[in-house]
């Protein structure tokens, strides 16, 4: 029998859309808009309130 995993709660800051493209207002030489990507700082780009993996800091 398959194991069911519970869905993680969606991040309240980004509503589950953790990465967005932001235009810089400039265009590339071929005419496309220059964009940069930004991740949600609250969920670190996962879209969920619980992190997908544990982050450890070396040297603490």
Which properties best describe this structure?
mainly beta, elongated
Question: Can you tell me about this structure?
Answer:
- With 60 residues, this protein is an all-beta fold.
- The chain has one domain.
- The chain is 0% helix and 27% strand.
- It has no helices and two strands.
- The chain has strands spanning 19-27, 33-39.
- Strands 1-2 form a two-stranded antiparallel sheet.
- A hairpin with a 5-residue loop joins strand 1 and strand 2 (33-39).
- It is elongated.
- The mean pLDDT is 81.
- Residues in β-strands, percent: 25-35%
Structural class: mainly beta
What is the strand tally?
2
3D shape: elongated
In angstroms, what is the radius of gyration?
Answer: 17 Å
> Largest beta sheet, briefly?
2 strands, antiparallel
Helix % is under 10%
Strand order of the largest sheet: 1-2
Mean pLDDT: 81
Order of helices and strands: EE
CA-CA gap between termini:
43 Å
pLDDT < 50 stretches: none
Total helices: the number is 0
* Domains, number: 1
Question: What would you call the quaternary organization?
Answer: single chain
Q: Topology, please?
A:
Blueprint (H helix, E strand, L loop, with lengths): L18 E9 L5 E7 L21
Antiparallel strand pairs: 1-2
Summarize it.
With 60 residues, the protein is mostly beta strands.
């Amino acid at each position: 029998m398959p194991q069911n995993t519970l869905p993680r709660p969606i991040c309240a800051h980004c509503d589950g859309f953790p990465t967005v493209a932001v235009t810089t207002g400039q265009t590339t030489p071929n005419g496309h808009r220059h964009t940069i990507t930004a991740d949600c700082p609250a969920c670190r780009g996962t879209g969920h309130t619980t992190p997908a993996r544990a982050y450890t800091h070396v040297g603490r």
